[in-house]
Design a protein that fits this description.
Oligomer: single chain
Distance between the termini: 30 Å
Helix content: 25-40%
Order of helices and strands: EEEHEEHEHHHHEHEHEEHH
Strand order of the largest sheet: 6-7-8-3-9-10
Number of helices: 10
Radius of gyration: 17 Å
Largest sheet: 6 strands, mixed
CATH class of the largest domain: Alpha Beta
Number of strands: 10
Number of domains: 2
CATH architecture of the largest domain: 3-Layer(aba) Sandwich
Shape: globular
CATH topology of the largest domain: Rossmann fold
Length: 237
């Protein structure tokens, strides 16, 4: 399967502090890849670097095109969407307004309306709350809205940072089940950072393990899940 995202020798910085130390990895076209590692390993920093939110060096290619010199807005226009930790919904706007903001790069209202209906199909609760302010939604509903808003962009690659954080187990299962459906039906690649390692490996095709800003192990999700030494040493289950 061809690579949708190719990352080589990626370094990232917060001020003078280097937090990524030349990492490299790939995400396959239409595949799901998870980045694993302890707190502070560099997972969230990797997503922020890919999106152009922090200073970075190295080579990043999306669908063969270099994007490491581009702004966040240009990267989004080329097909990368980012669901950050903390969800990032516009709390004073309604569900519907949030979704329309997600489609800001698109001009044809009929296509935007069609995409919105598709999101409501994935997350029916959002349809019920379409005129409700996002700030009054439950945590699970806000996460559903954040994912839907990113998908309204019609991305080729979706970056997801800790989608299960703070959510009840039943909501986590619902969201991960829908992400599998979205991956198959929309054909969107997913790069996932997730604290629930077992859940992440169950969803993903491939996994990369980060340790203190470096990639140390990679393999299929099944290989990492089935390797007792890796589980004990790095994954904690």
């Amino acid at each position: 399967m061809a690579a949708l995202l190719e990352v080589k020798n990626l370094e990232a910085f917060y001020g003078p502090t280097r937090v990524l130390k030349g990492i490299g990895f790939e995400v396959a076209e239409g595949g799901i890849t998870t980045l694993l590692g302890a707190n502070g390993a560099g997972k969230t920093s990797t997503l922020r670097a890919l999106s152009g939110l922090i200073r970075r060096t190295g080579e990043i290619r999306l669908a063969g095109q270099r994007i490491d010199g581009h702004s966040t807005e240009k990267i989004a226009a080329l097909g990368m969407a980012h669901v950050p930790d903390g969800r990032g919904t516009l709390v004073n706007m309604t569900v519907e307004e949030n979704l329309r903001v997600g489609a800001y790069l698109r001009r044809r209202k009929a296509e935007v309306d069609e995409s919105m209906e598709r999101m409501f199909g994935y997350f029916p609760r959002l349809r019920e709350r379409r005129q409700q302010q996002a700030g009054t939604l439950s945590g699970g509903e806000q996460q559903m809205l954040a994912i839907s808003r990113a998908l309204m962009q019609r991305p080729r690659l979706l970056l997801m940072d800790e989608p299960s954080f703070g959510l009840a187990p039943l909501i986590i299962r619902e969201i991960f089940d829908i992400m599998r459906v979205v991956n198959r039906q929309e054909g969107v690649g997913i790069l996932l950072v997730e604290q629930n390692v077992a859940r992440a490996l169950d969803l993903a095709d491939h996994a990369w393990l980060l340790e203190t800003g470096s990639t140390v192990i990679s393999g299929t999700a099944k290989q990492l899940r089935d390797d007792a030494q890796i589980r004990r040493s790095y994954l904690g289950f």
